[in-house]
Write a structure and sequence with these properties.
heterodimer; A: 201 residues; mainly alpha; 2 strands; 9% strand; elongated; B: 74 residues; 3-stranded antiparallel sheet
């Protein structure tokens, strides 16, 4: 018996569902690597960590004519053989955003799998989209703030001049999150329509 | 006994079928609706009925829409 093309999930849907799973596995593996590294004293780069340091603006050279350097500049530097605590702070800084990515990927994976299985208009997907909207609107700023705090602690642990908390409200994330929440309500309407349709003879 | 939907609409398919000595499967064949869907209607679990379905049922049973459906006191 053959399956008609109208009931078979599209290639793009299958690809996206598979891609979400692969990205989730890679994220989880990277998180495990970070945690093991934090405990054992290494980073994914080996025995160096990347840290942000504050540099006086007058040390900047090569600026175009007419350009004025700010008072201080945050620069990313690599610290070789840092103290053990630096690995933990670096891991925490990266994990703050990785956990958020993992949560978003988990929700997207569930959504894509239901699309692949030709049953997207369900209460479960409405919950997934509402959660995803919450993750984006609330989670992204929180993760950025935590990440900035851990980066600051990392700089302190390596005796560098920390630029302190560097936080800007992520406007793109807020708009994206609102779009996802709007999509959740579209799905909620879709669920109601599907229930009505299924009760129609 | 007619099945009554949650909206207080009674469906009299059982009586109409019995009076004509007809089975649900035979009606489903005549109306070209699945037995499952017709069973949903017969048992009062349908939320809506298309005019085309209602017309086909009336044609098959030789009756009027009012013979198939009626409003009951809630």
């Amino acid at each position: 018996m053959t399956t008609s093309s109208s009931t078979r999930p599209s290639k793009s849907t299958r690809f996206l569902a598979g891609l979400a799973t692969v990205l989730l596995v890679v994220s989880a593996a990277f998180a495990v690597l970070l945690i093991v590294g934090a405990v054992a004293g290494f980073s994914p780069d080996g025995h160096t960590v990347a840290a942000h340091v504050q540099v006086p603006g007058d040390q900047l050279t090569g600026l175009p004519a007419g350009a004025v350097a700010p008072n201080d500049v945050a620069v990313a530097v690599r610290v070789e053989h840092p103290p053990h605590a630096a690995y933990a702070w670096a891991a925490a800084r990266d994990l703050a955003q990785l956990v958020l990515l993992g949560a978003a990927l988990w929700l997207l994976r569930g959504l894509l799998r239901s699309v692949r299985d030709r049953n997207p208009f369900t209460d479960a997907n409405v919950r997934r989209l509402r959660s995803l909207g919450g993750v984006v609107i609330v989670g992204v700023p929180v993760a950025l703030l935590l990440s900035s705090f851990f980066a600051s602690e990392l700089a302190d642990s390596t005796r560098l001049d920390s630029p302190g908390l560097m936080f800007r409200l992520p406007g793109n994330a807020l708009i994206g999150g609102l779009a996802v929440l709007a999509l959740a309500e579209v799905f909620a309407a879709g669920v109601r329509m599907r229930v009505d349709l299924e009760g129609t003879v | 006994m007619a099945a009554v939907s949650e909206h207080g609409i009674a469906v009299h398919l059982d009586e109409l079928l019995a009076a004509r000595d007809m089975t649900l499967a035979q009606l489903a064949d005549a109306v070209e609706v699945t037995v499952v869907n017709l069973s949903v209607l017969k048992n009062g679990r349908a939320k809506a009925i298309r005019f085309s379905t209602l017309a086909a049922i009336c044609d098959a049973l030789g009756c009027q829409p009012g013979d198939v459906l009626s409003r009951t006191e809630e």
